[in-house]
Design goal:
Shape: globular
Mean pLDDT: 97
Largest sheet: 6 strands, parallel
Distance between the termini: 41 Å
Bound molecules: adenosine monophosphate
Number of helices: 10
Order of helices and strands: EHEHEHEHHHEHEHHHEEE
């Protein structure tokens, strides 16, 4: 496995690809866990060459967010990636990706006005910026993204479609701990008490799905979520929404024809966690 810290050396290596060979990319911010590993395994199985990028992208963090504290475990990450059969790791410094202050701002129409876009202004500008830069540098045939970041996947899919990127996007299912907590690099911030209460997210989603016929409207479900929250004093709800799976539009009903998916974000202590679940 080769590790690259700059664009030029990566691109020299990329030239060695034989025409027809497929290159798979898994973009990450490092602090890798079994969720990332599931994407990597799939990329290794489906491509001739697999690249993983590790880059804690500063432009997707808000001024009060955890950029400086974000876990960085490059050595450990590389050991894991090597054991999974990855060929190339692209781990640039921020100066390599952003040598000057950026003059481009990506403006999205509706898709970032809800869910994480509402409570993290500017976040998806940073995501679109970094993913487009990584796609230009790495030029993968396929790129693998987790559905834990469901809105992110929808936005990247729109970006690829509208900007005619020649890349196939591969959505991958959410990987969870055995008790249901979605794996996240941010879970390491949780104290033991917070770790227990972090189950608020998954327990709420699972309960809604199980008793879906008890609810008439998305608003009834919101009442249930607020009621459940009372049992988790360390959790503070950031948002809960039920939206159409296909286009993140409001749903008129909770019937399968509206493809309802529940989205939740909550602070547990000071750690912000997200999760989502299709209701059918
Ligand atoms: P991150 O390092 O958090 O930017 O995540 C890199 C990629 O891994 C993204 O496509 C995430 O959606 C995906 N990912 C993170 N956590 C999980 C998980 N628990 N299950 C599946 N994919 C995940």
């Amino acid at each position: 496995m080769k590790i690259f810290h700059n664009i030029q050396s990566f691109q020299e290596e990329r030239k060695q690809l034989i025409p027809g060979q497929k290159l798979g990319l898994v973009p990450t911010m490092g602090a890798l866990h079994a969720g990332h590993a599931s994407l990597v395994k799939r990329a290794v199985a489906e491509n001739d060459v697999t690249a993983v990028s590790i880059f804690v992208n500063p432009t997707q963090f808000g001024p009060t967010e955890d950029l400086s504290n974000y876990p960085r475990t490059l050595e450990q990450d590389c050991a894991l990636l090597e054991s999974l059969g990855v060929d190339w790791v692209f781990a640039p410094m921020a100066k390599e990706i952003y040598p000057d202050e950026s003059q481009l701002i990506f403006s999205l129409k509706d898709i970032d006005k809800k869910l994480c876009g509402r409570t993290r202004p500017g976040h998806f500008n940073g995501v679109v910026q970094v993913v487009s830069i990584l796609f230009h540098i790495i030029r993968p045939d396929r790129a693998y993204f987790g559905l834990k970041d469901y809105q992110q996947f929808q936005i990247i899919r729109q970006m690829v479609k509208e900007l005619h990127f020649q890349v196939e996007l591969v959505p991958c299912p959410i990987v969870r701990e055995t008790d249901g907590l979605a794996l996240s690099s941010r879970n390491v911030y949780l104290s033991a008490a917070e770790r227990k209460q972090a189950l608020f997210l998954n327990h709420t989603l699972t309960a809604i799905k199980q008793k879906l016929e008890d609810f008439q409207t998305a608003s009834d479900v919101k009442d249930f979520v607020h009621h459940t929250l009372a049992q988790y004093p360390l959790a503070k709800l950031d948002y809960f929404e039920i939206l159409n799976d296909k286009n993140l539009a409001e749903v008129d009903s909770l019937t399968p024809s509206d493809f309802p998916r529940a989205f939740i974000a909550a602070f547990v202590g000071t750690t912000r966690l997200i999760d989502n679940m299709a209701l059918y």
